[in-house]
Amino acid sequence: LINPWAHDFAAFDLWARPIGVLIIASLLRESGWEPMFVNCLDPDHPEMGPVKVGANAQGRFHRAPIQKPAALSGIARTFCRYGVAPEIVKKDLASMPRPCAILVTSFMTYWYPGVRETISLGREVFPGVPVLLGGVYASLMPGHAAEHCGPDAVISGPAEIGLFESLFEHTGLDIRGDHGRRNLGFSPALDLMRGVRFLPLLTSRGCPLRCAYCASARMLSRFVRRSPEAVIREIESAALHYRVRDIALYDDAFLVDSENHALPILEGAAERAPGMRWHTPNGLHASAITHRVAHALKKAGFETIRIGLESTSDGFHERTGGKTSLATFRSAVQNLKAVGFSTGQIGVYLMVGLPDQTRDQIEQDVEIVLREGAVPKLAEYSPIPGTSMWSSALRTARFPIQQEPLFHNCTLLPAASEGVDAEFLRVTRSRIRAATEAACVAYTGPGKRSVTDGCVRS
Ligand code: SF4
After folding, report:
1. Residue 360 and residue 337: Cα distance in Å, rounded?
2. Which ligand 1 atom sits nearest the alpha carbon of residue 454?
3. 27 alpha carbon – ligand 1 mean position (Å)
4. What pLDDT does 458 receive?
């Protein structure tokens, strides 16, 4: 299993670990396969030297400038390969036994050149071994992935649907463990990672909402949760075996029906794994942060709270899926403050560069968040094929996003209105910094939001 490189203008390790591929590794192992894992984005590779690591286990990736793809030649920014040097990845691969198959995952649609480079290296080291490509990009754009990355097969959608059939088809090995099994599970094979700085935790998959800008439902149409007891056991075990103190929660909808899910997890974790620091790069639903939930978050040790507000524009949430509202956002922040969370701990995602969004609107969004005593986190909008907002993005796009996924890159603000540009965002971010400097405690790189989640991460 290989987690590919990211080719981009910027990428930060804000608790980014390939949890999906590590969960697939668990499933394969349970089914009788022997998974081996290579992480091209490994920030802890011993041959790459140390990277800067923040107080809460987040940090940076290694990077090296590379030539821009021709489509991006007009963009005056350095383009890099993020991750481990290719010659080191090649050496790591060559030191492994010849595999039956190579499974490559994928994330952002505009990171496909890194996927292509990874597949090509896999083929060079292990000629003749079938390469199967899955993950977010492969699911959102299977045709493009098949044509431009050259795998033997593209697995589109959740792995449990097509992985074993595809492995059987391409290897002839009918190893499926429990043939009736339809659920992927949740526990990542952490032992395959070189360094475990924190626990990447998934307590649920999917989301019951359908926001117009989000790909969550395209990745998994169901909303499935694990038992609170299993989650608490996983946290206890990670604290014991890896001595981790930090937890990065990757759920899209952790607080939905909190009475039966989040609250028992938080209360159990506070009792049985005290002293953990939780971080929510994928954002929490403001509408679910009642006083009781806020209290439970505080008691469990939440350190970095992120809320997906996205926009305060009139009717935005009514039009895009009803995730939250200004009133519920205000109430959430008040509840968090009432139990002791500081301004610097409460980051609020605001999407910028949305189709038809004006500078005035963004300034208003920022003002509202600052006035409530939280920190605005500007997240550049990346158009995602197949979402309901895609057609608006096509209408306002400044680049041919239909033809070339490289133009989905949020750094380019591909669907933004005139005047919403890099300079405007630079000025706005420095205004936010000045307004919140005393309150901000953590590293505040611009980050990248996940393509599956409007609520999101690095
Ligand atoms: S943006 Fe968040 S709430 Fe909306 S569909 Fe995506 S994961 Fe669910």
Report:
1. 28
2. 1
3. 26
4. 27
Ligand 1: residue of 453, 456, 457 to mutate (most ligand atoms within 8 A of CB) is: 453
Cα separation, 423 vs 50, in Å, equals 32
pTM beyond cutoff 0.90: yes
Residue 453 has pLDDT above 50, yes or no: no
Q: What is the pLDDT of residue 180?
A: 47
Total count of residues recorded for the chain: 458
* DSSP run (H or E) holding 367: helix 359-371
Q: What torsion, rounded to 10 degrees, do the Cα atoms 42, 48, 53, 57 define?
A: 30
pLDDT tens readout for residues 71-130:
999 999 999 999 999 999 999 999 999 999 999 999 999 999 999 999 999 999 999 999
Looking at residue 381, its amino acid is Y
Closest by CA to 447, choosing from 3, 16, 4, 6, is 16
209 lines ligand 1 (CB under 6 A): yes
Bridging pattern class, strands 199-201 and 246-249: parallel
Q: What's the CA gap between 144 and 337, in Å, rounded?
A: 46
- Minimal-distance CA residue to ligand 1 atom 1: 454
- The answer, yes or no, to whether any atom of ligand 1 lies below 6 A from the CB of 456, is no
Residue 357 CB-half CA count within 13 A: 28
State yes or no: pLDDT of 195 exceeds 70: yes
Backbone angles phi, psi at 346, to 5 degrees: -105, 95
Ranges 79-93, 99-113, 172-186, 377-391: which has the least confidence: 172-186
* Residue 456: predicted pLDDT: 36
Q: Is the CB of 455 under 6 A from ligand 1?
A: yes
CA of 452 to the centre of ligand 1 (A): 8
Q: Residue 170 and residue 155: Cα distance in Å, rounded?
A: 12
